[in-house]
Amino acid sequence: MSDTVTDGDGDPTRVAIACQGGGSHTAFTAGVLKGLLREWDDEYELVGISGTSGGAFNALAAWYGLVTADEDRAIELLDAIWEDLSASDLSDRFLNNVLVGLSRLESAGVPLLELSPYQIPGQEIGKDELRETLERHVDFDAVSDLCGRETPELVVGTVNINAGVFETFTNEDVTPKAILASAAVPALFEAVEINGHYHWDGLFSQNPPIDDLMTVDADRKPEELWVIQINSQEREGEPTTLAEIADRRNELSGNISLNQELGVIERVNKWIDEGHLPESDFSRTEIHRIAMGTEYHTSTKVDRSPSFVRELMELGEQRAAEFRRGR
């Protein structure tokens, strides 16, 4: 980045990045990461990156590119994975248009035939395609050896539907199954079994995971937390139509866990400032949000059309540039 930022000892400022989930909208996150990595300043040290659902795909791609090569490789992986995720061929584009249309009708209150993913023939095909995309670009057998104190923490969020608790997978435990579980939207995909328990989309839990980025050794704890936020925090006016209400409910539900976890960090920062916690044992973490800042209909969260993916990635790069200029 353009400015030199160090802590009081002249060491690089430790940074963690948290990538919120939100379906196809997380192509925006890929754009932000590309923009940040392209202009990365060595005065910052990335000590952790987390993600949920589509955010987990981005976190994994960025992390793997960085620990196996450099920022350029991470950018290449983000582009490659999203090229594969986009609805590129004719049949995939047709299916994409159908899903977007059905989602729009549903949010408008139109009665639709509802089926469980367990009732849909060939449902596993979509999950298999996601797994193949991941394994095409990431050597998961090598992940364990790549993890260590000199590499950023990697965290993926899911929800354990049997235990009814949030569950995160970190570092060597980030497998294709963990990523798929984080993206297993209940209405679209069957649950993913890991260690004898079934898991759903991490949007029900930590979106994105924050706590695991903070509960690390003191010399690896982030001094700054950059949150790439998909769901709008604020909106003007009152939602009145069914579509507007559905949009806002979707955004609010996606932000609940995020705001709760950030609230804990802000409370600790306040107690340190007020002298209730000793700075010798506790450290402040400055929070920055990189928000999409553009409102899209909730149905577009399933839109994988190449043109829409490109639009979101370009918007992400624009927001990353604005963030860098504001540092």
TrEMBL record:
InterPro entries associated with the record: Acyl_Trfase/lysoPLipase, PNPLA_dom
Q: Name one GO biological process term.
A: lipid metabolic process
**Which residues belong to any copy of the PNPLA domain?**
17-214
Q: Which residues form a coiled coil?
A: none
Q: What are the record keywords, sorted?
A: Lipid metabolism
Q: What is this protein called?
A: Patatin-like phospholipase family protein
Q: Which organism is it from?
A: Natrinema salsiterrestre
Q: Which domain of life is it from?
A: Archaea
